[in-house]
Amino acid sequence: MSRPFDSIAPDPIHKRRILITGISGAHARLLTMQLLKHGHEIIGIDRRPWPKAPKTVTVYQTDVRKRPAADVFRKHRPHVVVHMATVTHFTRSREERYRINLMGTRAVFEHCHHYGVEQAVFVGRHTIYGAAPDAPIYRSEEEVPLAVSTFPELADTVAADLYAGSALWRYPELKTCVLRLVYMLGSTLRGTLSSFLAAPRVPMVLGFDPLYHFMHDRDAMHAIVAAIEHDLNGVYNVAGPPPVPLSILCKETGRTVVPLPEGLLRRSLGHFGLSEIPEGAIPHLKHPVVVDCNKFKRDTGWEHVHDELSTMSSFRGELEMRAREGRARAAR
Question: How many domains does the chain have?
Fold first, then answer.
């Protein structure tokens, strides 16, 4: 097991002023704390407040698409921008997801170009590659994103990723790093896979047991730090330990698997204690989306700290602790 990334002493020569969009989110807060440990100056933008933000962190409560966000860029002139103000859950309408994910990404990159930002890091998802029966086992950065056709609800996420990637040729003076992270699990209990596993019963398509690629959320934040401190420019897959079958993932996180024929599963989602997912996600219950992370590791030297078992154990422990706390509050 390699040494934790946050135990490596920061190099003061590379201290940067870093603006994080979506800073009030659980993962962005983790990232903020890691960057502070490395000696960087942090500024944040988010529509949501962060009431107990560190005193050294300035948070502006505004929308990245609005004029006040441009004023933040103009005032602070950040060296690096990490764009995390996107949404992955489907409780919002498709129109709102489009406005937040695509139009928000466009606004952020235009501000980066106009105000002399040195590096922009877009935090994306590996699910844009799409789950398909004829896809290669390991998806490289050169693979064409198929999620628009296999998972139409992800169209805005794919569009935001591709727009960010287009900055590589539209704004050649701006170092653009597009990170396609696998699912994240850990103590935050946030993210697509965490939400899927939050229900006590997890549906599976009868006859299928796809591999699921995930990493500990703290490893994911360390990877973003590595991308910044190595001035990455390009598109990179980011993954930690090897993938595991969905059945093993459910067993190790304390979930009950409910295998159902695909037709019955479609009618049962969100009922009988089963996880609720959009219909477009059903191919992800049948086919794996696994990525090749060698390019990122080669260019940064980064290695994950948490293996698959400790990552699943961390998630399960946090779920059980919060359940106990909920029962204790209800009993008062």
Answer: 1
- 3 in a domain, yes or no? no
- Does the residue 210 lie in any domain? yes
Q: Indicate which CATH number applies to the domain containing 259.
A: 3.40.50.720
Q: How far apart are CA 278 and CA 270, in angstroms?
A: 10
Q: What is the pLDDT of residues 81-114, one digit of tens each?
A: 999 998 876 666 778 888 889 999 999 999 999 9
Angle (CA) 36-40-43 rounded to 5° is 85
What amino acid is encoded at 161 in this protein?
D
Q: What are phi and psi of 73, to 5 degrees?
A: -60, -45
Pairwise CA distance, residues 303 & 5, whole Å: 8
What are 142-169's pLDDT values in tens digits?
A: 998 888 778 878 889 999 999 999 999 9
Residue range of the domain that includes 318: 15-331
Q: Is 137:290 a contact under the CB 8 Å cutoff?
A: yes
Give pLDDT tens digits for 13-32.
478 999 999 999 999 999 99
Classify residue 296 by burial, with Cβ atoms within 10 Å: 0-12, 13-18, 19+.
buried
CA distances to 196, 231, 259 from 278, in Å = 11, 37, 17
Whether the Cβ atoms of residue 27 and residue 82 lie closer than 8 Å to each other: no
Residue 9 forms part of a structural domain: no
Provide the residue type at 311 as one letter. Answer: T
| Coil, strand or helix at 44 | strand
- For residue 260, list its beta bridge partners: 205
CA 192 to chain CA mean position, Å: 9
Nearest partner of 89 among 302, 281, 249, 263, judged by Cα: 281
CA 78, CA 74: separation in Å to the nearest integer? 9
- Rounded-to-integer distance, Cα 69 and Cα 92, Å: 22
d(CA 293, CA 217): 16
Find, among 262, 274, 259, the residue nearest to 201 by Cα: 274
pTM value is 0.92
Q: Is residue 1 part of a domain?
A: no
